[in-house]
């Protein structure tokens, strides 16, 4: 299992990118930005990383000229999928729900052959092909057992799949099934393969 560490509250400033600046007018947000998708995206609603306001991204060496920032309303507008994996943290089955990761990415113009760098608030980065995200039916979970995921816990988003039913993971020890599942997901860097 990958070790995680706690980030102090000063890291929150980087989770709320500011709309505005050059190239940041395609789709206005209603609420705080929850997920920043950068790189090879077809749509954008924000400009480059701001060294003052995007502190977490700067610390994680995330860099882009434009990106698309997704808020809670945008995630809620996409069809939700429910999965019921046995989680490594308590070895119990939990119900997680949220849109398919591929649906989120396709909504901002990410190509089917893209490579993803999914980044969590603690700096953990998962490289994943868009094709694998589709095969695994990975979701951007926003709720667990009917309650919203929270920052400081496993949220506000968790990229996760139903490991119990996937041939690639179901026979692995529980602690090894979720290495591709970043909790605290806040940034996805997209590149073409």
From TrEMBL:
<protein>
    <submittedName>
        <fullName>Molybdopterin-dependent oxidoreductase</fullName>
    </submittedName>
</protein>
<dbReference type="InterPro" id="IPR036374">
    <property type="entry name" value="OxRdtase_Mopterin-bd_sf"/>
</dbReference>
<keyword id="KW-0732">Signal</keyword>
<feature type="signal peptide">
    <location>
        <begin position="1"/>
        <end position="24"/>
    </location>
</feature>
């Amino acid at each position: 299992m990958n070790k995680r560490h706690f980030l102090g509250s000063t890291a929150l400033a980087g989770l709320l990118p500011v709309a505005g600046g050059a190239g940041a007018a395609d789709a206005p947000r209603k609420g705080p930005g929850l997920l920043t998708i950068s790189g090879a995206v077809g749509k954008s609603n924000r400009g480059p990383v701001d060294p003052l306001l995007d502190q977490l991204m700067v610390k994680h060496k995330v860099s882009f000229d434009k990106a698309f920032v997704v808020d809670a309303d945008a995630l809620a507008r996409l069809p939700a999928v429910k999965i019921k994996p046995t989680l490594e943290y308590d070895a119990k089955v939990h119900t997680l729900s949220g849109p398919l990761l591929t649906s989120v990415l396709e909504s901002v113009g990410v190509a089917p052959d893209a490579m993803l760098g999914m980044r969590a608030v603690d700096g953990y980065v998962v490289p994943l092909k868009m094709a694998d995200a589709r095969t695994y039916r990975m979701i951007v979970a926003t709720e667990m057992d009917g309650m919203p995921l929270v920052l400081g816990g496993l949220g506000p988003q968790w990229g996760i799949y139903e490991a119990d039913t996937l041939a690639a993971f179901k026979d692995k020890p529980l602690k090894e099934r979720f290495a591709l599942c970043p909790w605290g997901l806040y940034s996805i860097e997209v590149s073409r393969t």
